[in-house]
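F.,

This is the one I mentioned.
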């Protein structure tokens, strides 16, 4: 297949010559001498210039659109000590084996740096640019820049070819560092119509459209870095960006790609690979000899769920359609999320259970809230909705660790697209769950005669899955925790009871100390108040409702007396959306503290910030209030 790059690129040069471009490896006096950013003077790194240009890829001689091409060009400067170690650049792309969904071409990189008073330039070669191919179909190029120090200018550019032209990846004008100039161009012929989705007032205000509406251009200047705030679960919901979805393709027999949710659902259900999962008897196709029926519908559904989850292995994919037919899945034993969930759906329906396929946009792969238009490519994953009596149960058979009725937090999004005959529609995703942590903390002597906390913890529901995700991405904070605890044991009951139990010990104080200060509730989420800023820009997202329950019991050690302890308190936010209670019981020679924090609502608007900030300050004060012991005076 021969790709027609030259002609389309020529169109861009002719049509956009009026927009100033920066030549690769050539720097202005302003760029070389810049040592601070006036609109963000504390910045250690700044984007001097970045540009992206997207246009369709056409199969030569046939006129078919077979993909999108985007030319990328980035230029950054190191202004200070570079505390983030900026300089290792990763460029991911979805190769997907022989499918070659995305390809990276013409990758170049250079660095301009100061050697004393002299500025030098180094073009990067194979010793600085590496490619890695991963089992999940993704690949990446990694650029490791040398000479990354104050005054250095790092520059790279490349071309990405994307076969999935239905989805316009678009451009992000905001990121971790301030940007002096950020440009994006989208050139599209009139026989392709895209619905452009912009995020952020500056993006909407800086759009320039050609009279023929086939050229779209943005230029944003002096864009501050995106300021992360505590409890933002998906920054993609807030950064300045533009993306798009194809809704009319004049090269196809049916030019209207999507019209209504019902029509999109009908179109998906007519795909041969989709239909194959509902042909014939699934029990026979899958070679099922054991009876999957249980004592009731709940047991039957769980038997089917476990069978499918254990039999098939998921192949990571963001593709919103089946990757193969049912026969191929059974033969290979591996498929994407939709292959596996269509198999589960068919088995459930064959056993008389009311169930539906629901497409979702998994967090971190796209925006959290769906665009209220029937665009298939905004979906990246799927779930099964099961209804038994008055219960709605959500199933995910793609993760071997999950259990019946549990889905991971990253799939707990507000809405999904339910596909059912001619009644396809958006539906809310409301998972019924009990999530949180309970800790019993006691004081006891260790083998050396010193005092230690004995901590028994129970973690349940989505909190277990959140912990699993955190452990999958090791951090210095987690490594520090490992150094603090000893005699650690874990009992994993998640498959049976949706919980795990852990036991551990942690040093408290030495026997010869004269004054002892104990703060046993350090694992409270509000031990250090995360809400310190006077105002809030973005919503506060706790991801899901949960509780934290702490109990501390202690017999006052011989030779000590209780000098101070936390008072009993009880308070809540104005609408009881967050509640907290601490009960202190002091008897002769012992103390018991019971603290309960409940997050009853998962998301709060910035308008609620003042109330929430005040609540967090009070909780922090309570859980930090120490138990103080002092040696008795003879």
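My design for it:
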């Amino acid at each position: 297949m021969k790709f027609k790059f030259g002609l389309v690129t020529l169109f861009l040069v002719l049509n956009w010559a009026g927009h100033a471009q920066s030549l690769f490896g050539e720097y202005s006096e302003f760029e070389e001498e810049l040592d601070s950013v006036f609109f963000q003077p504390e910045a250690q790194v700044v984007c001097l210039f970045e540009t992206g240009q997207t246009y369709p890829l056409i199969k030569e001689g046939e006129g078919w659109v077979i993909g999108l091409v985007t030319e990328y060009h980035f230029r950054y400067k190191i202004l200070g000590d570079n505390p983030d170690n900026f300089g290792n650049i990763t460029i991911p792309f979805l190769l997907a084996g022989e499918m070659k969904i995305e390809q990276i071409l013409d990758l170049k990189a250079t660095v301009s740096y100061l050697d004393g008073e002299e500025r030098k330039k180094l073009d990067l070669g194979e010793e600085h640019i590496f490619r890695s191919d991963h089992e999940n179909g993704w690949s990446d190029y990694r650029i490791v820049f040398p000479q990354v120090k104050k005054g250095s200018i790092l520059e790279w550019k490349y071309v990405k070819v994307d076969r999935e032209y239905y989805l316009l990846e678009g451009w992000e004008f905001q990121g971790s560092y301030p940007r002096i100039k950020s440009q994006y161009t989208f050139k599209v012929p009139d026989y392709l119509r895209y619905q452009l989705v912009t995020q952020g007032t500056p993006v909407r205000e800086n759009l320039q459209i050609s009279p023929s509406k086939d050229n779209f251009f943005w230029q944003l200047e002096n864009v501050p870095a995106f300021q992360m705030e505590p409890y933002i679960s998906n920054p993609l919901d807030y950064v300045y960006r533009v993306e798009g979805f194809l809704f009319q393709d004049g090269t196809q027999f049916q030019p209207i790609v999507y019209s209504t949710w019902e029509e999109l659902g009908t179109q998906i259900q007519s795909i041969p690979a989709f239909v194959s999962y509902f042909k014939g008897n699934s029990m026979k196709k899958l070679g099922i000899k054991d009876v999957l029926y249980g004592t009731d519908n709940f047991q039957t559904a769980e038997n089917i769920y476990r069978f499918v989850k254990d039999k098939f292995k998921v192949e990571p994919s963001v593709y919103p359609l089946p990757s193969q037919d049912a026969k191929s899945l059974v033969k290979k034993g591996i498929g994407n999320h939709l292959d596996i969930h269509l198999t589960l759906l068919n088995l459930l329906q064959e056993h008389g259970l009311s169930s539906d396929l629901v497409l979702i946009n998994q967090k971190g792969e796209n925006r959290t809230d769906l665009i209220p238009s029937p665009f298939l490519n905004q979906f990246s994953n799927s779930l099964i909705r099961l209804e038994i009596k008055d219960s709605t149960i959500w199933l995910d058979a793609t993760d071997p660790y999950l259990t019946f009725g549990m889905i991971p937090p990253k799939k707990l999004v507000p809405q999904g697209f339910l596909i059912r005959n001619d009644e396809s529609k958006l539906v809310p995703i409301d998972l019924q769950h009990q999530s949180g942590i309970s800790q019993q903390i006691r004081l006891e002597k260790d083998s050396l005669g010193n005092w230690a906390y004995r901590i028994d913890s129970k973690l349940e529901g989505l909190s277990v899955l959140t912990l699993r995700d955190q452990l999958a991405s090791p951090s210095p904070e987690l490594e520090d925790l490992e150094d603090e605890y000893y005699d650690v044991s874990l009992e994993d009951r998640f498959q049976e009871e949706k919980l795990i139990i852990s036991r551990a010990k942690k040093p408290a104080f030495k026997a010869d100390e004269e004054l002892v200060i104990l703060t046993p509730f350090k694992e409270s989420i509000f031990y250090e108040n995360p809400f310190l800023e006077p105002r809030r820009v973005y919503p506060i997202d706790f991801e899901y409702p949960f509780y934290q329950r702490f109990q501390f019991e202690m017999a006052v050690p011989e030779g000590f007396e209780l000098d101070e302890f936390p008072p009993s308190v009880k308070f809540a936010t104005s609408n009881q959306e967050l509640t907290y209670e601490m009960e202190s019981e002091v008897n002769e020679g012992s103390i018991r503290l019971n603290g309960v924090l409940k997050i009853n609502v998962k998301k709060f608007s910035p308008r609620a910030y003042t109330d929430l900030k005040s609540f967090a300050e009070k909780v922090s004060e309570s859980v930090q209030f120490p138990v103080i012991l002092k040696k008795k005076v003879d």
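The first strand starts at residue 45 and ends at 58.

Talk soon.
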